[in-house]
Task: structure prediction
Amino acid sequence: MSALYGTYARSDLAFEQGKGMRLYDQHGRQYLDFYSGIAVNALGHGDPHIITALKSATEKVWHTSNVFTIPEQERLGQRLVDATFADAVFFTNSGAEALECAIKTARHYYWAKGEVNRYEIIAFTGSFHGRTLGTIAAGGNPSYLEGFGPAMPGFKHTAPGDLDAAKALIGPQTCAILIETVQGEGGVTAMTSDFMQGLRALCDKHDLLLILDEVQCGYGRTGRFFAFEWSGITPDIVAVAKAVGGGFPLGACLAKSDVAASMVPGTHGSTYGGNPLATAVGNAVLDRILAPGFIDHVNQMGRKLAWHLQQLAQKYPDYVLELRGKGLLAGIKIAPPVRDFVARLRDDHHMLAIGAGDNVLRLIPPLIVTEVEIEEAIGKLSAAFDAIKAETASVSAVE
Result:
């Protein structure tokens, strides 16, 4: 019996090696990775540049504390500022911590202005912002809240896509609107440009901050550095993680200078956040993400994946019910139970994918994916649907 908490329904599969788009299990079997450790392994497995950076960093100091200057952290922070809307960065170990920082930053911004009662945040159903008590309250999913006592106050929820409903929730205590630009866990729902522009306009009109959760959809995954860039808006705060460390625990909260100004010594902190080892890896990841042509490649592969999925939907209309997502964060609402389908892909076709809410199959390959590998994945999906069709026909024949 495992000594670990039973919080995961783990497969017996254990991976020992990885190279590019492939993972190899304890028996040497090869798997096509369209899972990326839930969008973390953006550069695939065994990227030489990251390995070199990590090896070099391990020969230096690994950890000090944020009471000292950390040159790699300073460098990564400045590079993110130079590449984005932001003026200030706080480094974390995870996406949930990045969201916690974002929430605290928004609330403290108004407190520092003397508006101490402005702490409520409007959020959206179908969201996933993390597993801390604060972020499950922000997500509002009853299944994640159950058993943990009253939800932390200060969040109101409505369905995404309805601007009037969001507007109706604005009151004298509202300080911000929080949304995933592309919902991941909730069902791979991409927000429209009109809706995102509408939220920005609401925030401007009512003096609210716009907080975006791009933990899963940011860092190039949709074919832009951040997914919000497709809608032409500028947020006030953005939380990122996952791909930021390429497999090493690292996240960040990015904010405009005036918004972050009140976060002075004593308001927030992290023992490990942005330590020398993590930010050395983060800089190596950013080298690759910001390299000329890299995000253009992601954009091209996102279009290729969308085209191939359209063909798949036409071929299997009884099984493929709806296509969702953006770029290389793709969702397929399917008829078969998604948990069973994920297991079938893994066990019978050696392809790794992940489920999401609303019976959606999530495809989130490393950003280095090629069209050849996209076609291979489509072939495996087709084979899985064909097997289901054959099994269904066999059962019908018996009956």
Q: What stands out?
A: The mean pLDDT is 97. The first helix runs from residue 36 to 39. DSSP finds 13 helices and 15 strands in the chain. The chain has two domains: 15-47+293-398, 48-289.
